[in-house]
Amino acid sequence: MNVLLKQTLTASVLSTMIAGTVFAAPSETPPAFVKRVADGLISSLKANHAQLQNNKAAVSAIVRKNLDPYVDAQAFTRIVMGTYASNQNSTAAQRAQFEKNFRATLIENYGSAFAKYTNQTYVMRPYKETGSKFPVVTIDFNNNGEKIPVSFQLADNGSQWKVRNINVSGIDLGLQFRNQFAANVKRNGGNIDKAIATFKPDADAAVNQKK
């Protein structure tokens, strides 16, 4: 009886864990998530605008607090590393180092852009439910009269959405960063460690890249 009871309890616990894993889902809709993150970031930028001028550390701190927790760095890393993210072309340690470096340089990239923030506004485009595994939410930022569309591709992280890729004005940043990294690997003679250590994703160059 004791053995049977233990087996029953074990099965019950496992089924509960599996059910929780299968049905766990973000409580927010994709557009609600993006709006919350965007509003939080913009509010912090507005509140601290005077202190942000010529203060990279302050800008980076705001970006790290308001944006970094909502980025799926592992997924973004796999997109950018491309074929070099496979077990055949890199080690787990190399991929971890790339993710660490990539996250830091992204914060620096976005920090430089946000330091110029004055009082831009944005409008969310109507969200279209496509049933895709990676829903996309698009925001039109108004920068001194210029409309800049930014699309956020999201991934279901179990309890909340996370940003796995960004498209700016029709330019896929993940793909452009991948091309930049591949070129850096080539410049370093195929040495992955050197390529990872010297890789600096250039968001401006990516956005200005012609299709």
UniProtKB/TrEMBL annotation:
Q: Which InterPro entries match?
A: MlaC/ttg2D, Tgt2/MlaC_sf
On the tree of life, the source organism's domain of life is Bacteria
Q: Signal peptide span per the entry?
A: 1-24
Keyword Signal attached: yes
Q: Which UniProt keywords apply?
A: Signal
Is Transferase one of the keywords? no
Tell me, what's a Pfam family for it? Answer: MlaC
In its UniProt entry, what is this protein called?
Answer: Putative phospholipid-binding protein MlaC
